[in-house]
């Protein structure tokens, strides 16, 4: 595949019927209260809004409510924000209603939940465990994979109990937490196979792309074919630690990297901005190992204890993934870049959990923005700054930046949904994500052993951007 070309066939995803998107709830734009209502009723009635607008509202309310704030989530069915409130301070409840959200009484404040997570980090940083804040239950949700048993299980169970009643709950996963190296409309490096996430413009205006950090630390240069000529060089990589992301710049500065995610069968979705995730939000993941899958965000600020080390600040979802999906794109139906596939447990048959690096955080850390900055296919928008987390409805692209291109450097699965002949569990091998909803086109035949980089038979369209899993 030529990494300079932009696929000729661009069937832009416009409705719920394209390649598995039909399974997703369509998020409607913010709708104002009826003009027939009184001003006071309109101000206090819950408003409908998009998930991206919800994330922006939640960040502002969290600061205003202080110790009374107990977290929030997005009710996708009603398209409303539900805000957890601790105590019976009427002024706080009024503030929530004025903002157009639904106030819900809970026991645990966001500060107490954060403190509980810190206690778990001190007492239970055990490979094979993970935890995140679940605002729907107002608890810390702790998961232990199949490798956690005996003394280690007793330790994590004891740590959860020490937090007190109603603060955390624990469940056992049948899978094993691992980074998903290998697969996707692939990029290859150092014997590993990963996926490209989203195309970006770097601080100096050069074209580049984001992928998983565990891919970035595995090899310095990446190509589109096993043992092929390098197309990109890693500039920054974080893993383990405060995230799982890497910035790779294209070796050819004239590379045209489209801001799209390739859904296979000639269909793409344009990526126009980066946005923060909201619990309850409907999201989609693309990877050539398993194709297009959908599901929902189930937790934020997740900590995952991989065998290679602890990674913090991730998004937890019920979208499934498998080895070869690492680095791939997590996005919304309306074209917002949300995350980069990190790892998880299970697979798309049995289910499990999958974790993603937030795109807004990665962009802010590397100083990049979504798109090509005007070089490739349409130029940068004026909404600028990466990682600003802006709301959808007000035009504040979460990371702003150039619109029209973003996708992946070697793009995702193009004409075919990227079925790799062998795929396989690359550097780490483990079973992937979780059994999220399968909304999509071709589940790939891979799953075999990795290091060989799998035959890239899908010819996936170059930099049109499907998140590659790595």
Q: What can you tell me about this protein's structure?
A:
Strand 5 (129-134) and strand 6 form a beta hairpin. Residues 1-38 and 373-470 have low confidence and may be disordered. The chain has helices at residues 39-44, 51-65, 90-98, 110-123, 150-162, 213-216, 359-366, and strands at residues 11-12, 69-75, 80-86, 102-106, 129-134, 139-144, 168-172, 178-179, 186-189, 192-195, 198-201, 207-211, 221-223, 230-238, 245-250, 260-264, 267-270, 273-274, 282-287, 291-306, 309-317, 329-331, 336-347, 351-358, 369-370. The two termini are 18 Å apart. It is of the alpha+beta class and 470 residues long. Helix content is 15%, strand content 30%. The protein is globular, with a radius of gyration of 21 Å. A six-stranded antiparallel barrel has the order 19-20-21-24-23-22.
Concise synopsis of the structure shown:
This protein is an alpha+beta fold and 470 residues long. The protein has 7 helices and 25 strands. The strands form 5 sheets. It has a 6-stranded antiparallel β-barrel. Strands 13-14-15-12-11-25 form a 6-stranded antiparallel β-sheet.
Spatial strand arrangement across the major sheet: 19-20-21-24-23-22
Low-confidence stretches: 1-38, 373-470
Structural class: alpha+beta
Number of strands: 25
Outline, from the CA principal axes?
A: globular
Terminal CA distance reads 18 Å
Average pLDDT level: 75
